[in-house]
Amino acid sequence: MSVAGVGEFGLIDRVTARLSYGSTVLLGPGDDAAVVAAPDARVVASTDVLVEGRHFRRDWSGARDVGHRAAAANLADIAAMGAQPTALLVALCMPPELETGWAEELADGLAAEAAKVGASVVGGDMSASPTLTIAVTALGDLGGRPPVTRSGARPGDVLALAGRIGYAAAGLTVLTRGFRTPRLLVEACRRPEVPYAAGPHAARLGATSMIDVSDGLLADVGHVAKASGVAVDVRRDAFEVPRQMRDAAQALGVDPYSWLLAGGDDHALAATFPSAVALPPDWRPIGRVAEGSGVTVDGRPYDGPAGWDHFR
Amino acid sequence: MSVAGVGEFGLIDRVTARLSYGSTVLLGPGDDAAVVAAPDARVVASTDVLVEGRHFRRDWSGARDVGHRAAAANLADIAAMGAQPTALLVALCMPPELETGWAEELADGLAAEAAKVGASVVGGDMSASPTLTIAVTALGDLGGRPPVTRSGARPGDVLALAGRIGYAAAGLTVLTRGFRTPRLLVEACRRPEVPYAAGPHAARLGATSMIDVSDGLLADVGHVAKASGVAVDVRRDAFEVPRQMRDAAQALGVDPYSWLLAGGDDHALAATFPSAVALPPDWRPIGRVAEGSGVTVDGRPYDGPAGWDHFR
């Protein structure tokens, strides 16, 4: 059955029947708006949109994968402020001939990813559109801590990373060249594994700045350097190229460091910490903050591809 | 200059330079997420999406109009819970060849509409897309009051309306038939005039249920009737057909009550009140709640067009 066949309200009923609600949800879908707990008396909010053909392809990713990824991209932004995600709202634009099963599985993926951090899908909107588009807004709670912004890095700080990088970019290259393996990389491109807990953890440890790595490590560290008015140097030897990535790079004739340093979409977290902070295992040091501006790799400008611009 | 020409970050800079931030904005655009005050320790949140060709046409509405309308549709949902809007987040998907001026004027419209209620555009996302799409999320604060849902109407309550209805639908019919006047109606279709203050006002007066009229009065009152498990009767003589609407209806051969009773997009608010409440001038009585189910007009089923389904 197509989404046009069941109609807007029929589809909303089908989708909301699949959702469940955590303790932060005071009023879920079905009214003009949802009501979500904000115990901190501040709410952290971020919006990210995925467009078919631009951010995902239905022949490369299942609906559930796309749901996981759309949720993850937004939940990672909340975690990158040092906050705990509480809720997602989803605007879903669909071609009328889309199978309802696709929308239902998308909702399953969104809900399952949100559940990893105790968050819930609390509302949304649906419309017909020639272009399948998923705009997600995530909300979160700071738990009494100040938000960790991009602008607090100070000379002498250590740059550290939580989570994987380069996997999603490697997987995308693999898929683009017409392959479906290695599975590790292709799956990473379909569903990021976001180190959500590392965000609030970094905030409690006293991180001076933090960012979600979505445009590519060097590009995103560049945002931190610019916002903080500092220079950042990334150490290439901080990255071990995983075996499957090394093999794929060799087979495809790609420098694996272009995936590691410029690939986005793994939604790792990068943060800076005062050098006195003893970093726990989820945060590994990868560089240094200094006076100046810009990002260097081993002290030199990086001449590989820099990152991602969504209009180019 | 096209949006592809200035690029994602260039366009974000241009747009955010035009915004200003009210006192509820603790951290505005430019980081992974915004931080908004939620003094009530709960946040009200709603998402609504506008798709070109489905919800607006660029030859019928300017970018600023579309911005006003996208903001209004969302802010009205917050008001309909009895809450005070605080912030908007905007996901904007644009054809790469779109002029940057269009996006900038859209932002002006969004910000100006939000400013009417003291709210601010605090964040968003941009992407290229073949289909111009604007997904907006609005946040709001309940000020210590319980949310006014759709499910609290009780037999004996009075149904009341705040704001205009039928104007936007009449304006749309006028435009569809190739006319550009009467201006009053056409302008109403471009930019709704939402009675924002009437939402929190109704909550303070003890409204038992409330809804934003976006699908059409009878359809939306039907949502209240269903959620509350009651019947609602609407009095046709509660509506005076404005002169310009009557003239347009006559010229176009349309029953003006089809606009009044089934037209959406004016974002009036409909609410039910205990009969003992003395209604202030912004809320005029238009019907009654009784035991039973469904919506009637003057005691009979309404046989005109019922409302709007976004997939049909």
UniProtKB/TrEMBL annotation, chains A, B:
Source organism: Micromonospora echinofusca
Protein name: Thiamine-monophosphate kinase
Keywords associated with the record: ATP-binding, Kinase, Magnesium, Metal-binding, Nucleotide-binding, Thiamine biosynthesis, Transferase
Residues the entry annotates as binding Mg(2+) 5: 215
Record: residues binding Mg(2+) 4: 32, 46, 77
Chain residues that bind substrate: 55, 265, 308
Cited SUPFAM superfamilies: PurM C-terminal domain-like, PurM N-terminal domain-like
CDD domains tied to this protein: ThiL (cd02194)
Membrane-crossing residue ranges in chain numbering: none
Organism classification: Bacteria, Bacillati, Actinomycetota, Actinomycetes, Micromonosporales
Binding site for ATP: 124-125, 150, 214
